[in-house]
# Entry
Amino acid sequence: MTLTIGDIVQLSPELCKNPMFGGCMMVVTEPKSWGAQGYVQALGKNGQRGGQAYYRAGWAEMEKTGGVAVWDIATTDEV
# Structure
């Protein structure tokens, strides 16, 4: 599997080392030889956008969805 910045992967509900991320869609921010680092966008509250929960996923923990993020919320204040 080849990943690029902005790719969307889904984290495996069964193999994800941190069960809290299992099943989440992750935006790839740094492809790595061992997998990828990326973020899951968290919900906000009181009408405000939430932050990003970062995760480092090994190859076995994720599958590429074919989708690409349009906005990189982690690096911009624009909506």
Residues 7-67 form one domain. Strands lie at 7-11, 25-32, 35-41, 52-58, 62-68. The chain has one domain: 7-67. The two ends are 30 Å apart (CA to CA).
